[in-house]
Amino acid sequence: MQERGIQIKPLKQANSATLTVQSWHLDQVLSAEQRPLLRALLNDFQADMALFPAHFDPAQLRVLAIDMDSTLINIECIDEIADFAGQKAAVAKITEATMRGEIRNFSESLQQRVALLAGVSEAVLEAVYRERLRPNPGAAELIAQAKLLGLHTLLVSGGFTFFTNKLQHALGFHQAHANSLEIQAGFLTGKVLGNIIDGAGKAHCLEQVCQTLGCNKTQAMVIGDGANDLLMMAGAGLSIAYRAKPLVKEKADAAFDRVGLDAALALLR
């Protein structure tokens, strides 16, 4: 394939949970002007794209960090909890604006949304987990194979520990970090306990893991979908926007809209 002076040659092929993944090799380093041109071209062909940063070395990767809501799983948990309280439209509107980067203060956004959940039964959390939450395609395969490759797996979320704890156990993550909902007498109070994990909090969690393992952020692969993932993704060895908001796709090294999460494994070979 050749377009606007960019030559692309077949490199390798692998299978993901949803589609065949075909890798290609560029014969040049893309300029800032060429990157959006190539993205637009491949979008016309219904193809996803990954551009490796100069410092990326798959052999040096030590950590896989992934966001939960709408990345690892198919839903925004807070929106589904709100549905049981008849507040889904109001909460989802704030969630969408926050993930698009239109609301900059994630902590305030989360507090506003959680306040609308006051009085919801604790049993609703279990109902959301059992009835509505599903891992996105390729999630289990990605985590299992990453562990076999020796990567430390980190689930880090601006969502809630009720869900991250269950997913950590179900999928075998080494670590999981999220926010804790205050519950009294079996009902949500509308408050979050402790310090809120926002964009900076996610980045801090990843940096702490890297420090503990004796590596740096360039040895981490990070996957997310919303604006509050950008700080965690910045400076990573490889950043992947999964079914993400436009702002995140623009800044990530890779953007996956059509393949499963396990397509990331093709980038490690």
Keywords:
38% helix; alpha/beta; three-stranded antiparallel beta sheet; 269 residues; eight-stranded mixed beta sheet; 11 strands
Strand content: 15-25%
Strand order of the largest sheet: 4-11-10-9-5-6-7-8
Average pLDDT level: 88
Number of strands: 11
The best one-word shape is globular
The number of helical elements comes to 11
Can you characterise this structure?
With 269 residues, the chain is an alpha/beta fold. The protein has helices at 34-44, 68-72, 77-84, 88-99, 106-115, 123-131, 139-148, 161-171, 199-213, 230-233, 246-251; strands spanning 2-3, 6-15, 20-26, 49-50, 63-66, 152-160, 175-184, 187-193, 220-224, 238-242, 254-256. The chain is globular. Helix 11 (246-251) links the parallel strand 10 and strand 11 (254-256). Strands 4-11-10-9-5-6-7-8 form an 8-stranded mixed beta sheet, with helices on both faces.
Break the fold down into its secondary structure elements and pairings.
Layout (H helix, E strand, L loop, with lengths): L1 E2 L2 E10 L4 E7 L7 H11 L4 E2 L12 E4 L1 H5 L4 H8 L3 H12 L6 H10 L7 H9 L7 H10 L3 E9 H11 L3 E10 L2 E7 L5 H15 L6 E5 L5 H4 L4 E5 L3 H6 L2 E3 L13
Helix pairs in contact: 3-4, 3-6, 4-5
Compact overview of the structure:
By secondary structure, the protein is of the alpha/beta class. It is 38% helix and 24% strand.
